[in-house]
Amino acid sequence: MRVEQVASLEGHSDPVWCCAWSSDGNTLATCGTDKSIRLWTEQDHEWVCGTILSDGHSRTIRRVSWSPCGNMLASCSFDGTVCVWTKKDGEFECSVTLEGHENEVKSAEFSPSGRYLATCSRDKTVWIWEQGGTDDFECVSVQSCHTQDVKCVRWHPNEDILASASYDNSINFYKDEGDDWACDFTATGHDSTVWSIAFDREGDKLVSGSDDQTLRMWKRYHAGNQAGISPSWKCISTIQGYHTRPVYDVSWCHLTGLIASGCGDNKLRIFAPDPEQQVDCHTADAPNFIQAASLDAHRQDVNCVKWNPTRAGILASAGDDEVVKLWKVFDYEIPI
Amino acid sequence: MVLNLGFGSFQLENAAPQVFATVKDRPVTAAELDDAIEDPIDAREVFDLIRDINDPEHPLTLEQLKVVAEELVTVDPATRVIKVMFTPTIPHCSMATLIGLCIRVKLMRSLPREFKIDLMITPGKHDQERAINKQLQDKERVAAALENPNLLSVVNKCIAEPEY
To answer: Are B139 and A301 a contacting pair at CB < 8 A?
Structure first.
């Protein structure tokens, strides 16, 4: 595998905490300590920042997330609020501010159906908001299954299933049970804070990155599975011995099957299914992922990594060094 | 008095701490004054940055209370990791998190940003050692704490340069 840097996006004046691709893969949103959101697009082969949104939050913006249609952007902040930005006449405006969390909001994610927005906070709760109409979000559930700060929420790619990762070292899974949402499984195994989680394309596996310097891969066991295992998410492999500081983010590419991680040792790493293992990595019980690349990506901690959803092999990373970088991965094997 | 500042609550409690002698200033050598000679950051330099931090409840420095010591600092120039251990004056000290936060902020502001700082309680010296270490090492919670104006003001007071 060969990895080349294709762009270095400079403009933020403080650490960059998050970067997020729009679903068409054409726009990258970034945010961080400088309380601004920047939107970057490619013009004449150059990545340029055409929009800066800077009046939504009074403290650090921790994460941004796009709605599936690309007309809305959710940003969450240490100021305890979530802003939903809506595109009107080609410009993004903060159309609604969602309040309710008692402390910093760490993550906000639209569901792939666009119906729900999930948020989580240092107040240990996960909130699920349902979109009624434009600018109308109603909180339909507050989940308090975690015992500590909740770091990250991510939706299943195809179903209305939500996962959350926490300072309490666990990952919780939630589903709609008709009258309310319920936490129906808790996955434990990490020895410290779980900073980030990412589903694979089918949503049958999840990868998690932790302060314990490992990645873990979890497999979903459906009700009535042939192995006779009760419905659950079980850890099927641990990727260890590579990261030397906390893993702050993971991203699982739905086009190539590659996994990227961002680490406190300034490195960006890419993991690929082991070509020696002669199995279909989508159905294997325990696919073996090996490190295919390790790059000194940033001068400081790598906070975020995101695969482009439409352009195979394009990866964005964001760091404490105030820089966002774009990478292109060549010569990788597309799994079976 | 209880201070609840979003990064744990703090209660004053150690009324009569033991006071220890302080070390002499490091003599400045000719080599250190020569700009042509590279002078890497060493444990003594890191110790000098934190020894005069004020204790939150007493008009004493962390060095005078033996909370920090040069032998509890290690610097790895290859990985740029600086490890600092600190020793709360009593094993149930509720100020331990605040003291740790002051040490971290002082080092973050003084050292080049490429340095990684691993800060922890000297093993066995606090009842809540694991929980405090985890909180002090969580950069997201540290960043959020430092955006709290009340807590920042307390930290700034503790790390202010001594007046002579």
So the answer is: yes
Q: Cβ contact (<8 Å) for A149 and B141?
A: yes
pLDDT grade, residue B9 (50/70/90)? Answer: low
Helix (H) / strand (E) element for B49: namely helix B43-50
Buried-exposed string A218-251: b where 16+ CB fall within 10 A, e elsewhere: bbbbeeeeeeeeeebbbbebebeebbebbbbbbb
The CATH H-level superfamily of A2-330 is: YVTN repeat-like/Quinoprotein amine dehydrogenase (2.130.10.10)
Q: Which chain A residues touch B7 with a CB distance below 8 Å?
A: none
- Whether A106 has its CB under 8 Å from any CB of chain B: the answer is yes
Q: What percent of chain B is predicted at pLDDT more than 90?
A: 69
- B141 contact residues in A (CB cutoff 8 A): 122, 149
Q: Which sequence spans correspond to the domains of chain A?
A: 2-330
pLDDT of A283 strictly over 90? no
**Which of B114, B137, B144 has its CB closest to that of A104?**
B144
pLDDT digits (tens, 9 = 90+) for B70-115: 999 999 988 999 999 999 999 998 999 999 999 999 999 999 999 9
Contact status of A93 with chain B (Cβ, < 8 Å): no
Contacts of B138 in chain A (CB under 8 A): 167, 193, 211
Nearest chain B alpha carbon to A122: B141
pLDDT for residue A179? 85
Domains and CATH numbers, chain B: 39-159 (3.30.300.130)
Tell me the CB-side half-sphere exposure of residue A231, using CA atoms within 13 A. Answer: 9
